[in-house]
Amino acid sequence: MRIIVCVKRVPDSESRIAKAKDGLSVDTQGVKFVLNPYDEYAVEEALKLKEAAGDGSVSVITLGGEESKETLRTALAMGVDEAVLLKGQPSVDGLGTAEKLAEAIKGREYDLVLFGKQAIDDDNLQVPAMVAELLGLPCATVVTELQVDGGAVTATREVEGGHEIVEFELPGLIAAQKGLNEPRYPSLKGIMQAKKKPLEEVDAGDAESRLEVVEVMNPPVRAAGQIVGEGADAVPELVRKLRDEAKVI
Amino acid sequence: MSVLAFAEQRGGALRSSAFETLTAGRELADALGVELIAVLLGPAGLAAETGKLGSYGADRVLTGFSDAFAEYAPESYTELVAKAAQEAGAKAVLFAASAQGKDLAPRAAARLKAGLASDVTEVRVADGRVVAVRPAYAGKVFMRVGFIGEPAMLSVRPRAYKAVEAPRDARVEELAVGGDVAGRTKVRAAEGEAKERPDVAEAEIVVSGGRGLGSPDNWKLLEELADALGSGAGLGASRAVVDAGWRPHGEQVGQTGKVVAPPLYFAFGISGAIQHLAGMQTAGCIVAVNKDPEAPIFKIADYGIVGDALEVLPRLIEEIKRPRS
Question: What is the CATH number of the domain that holds A145?
Answer without folding.
Answer: 3.40.50.620
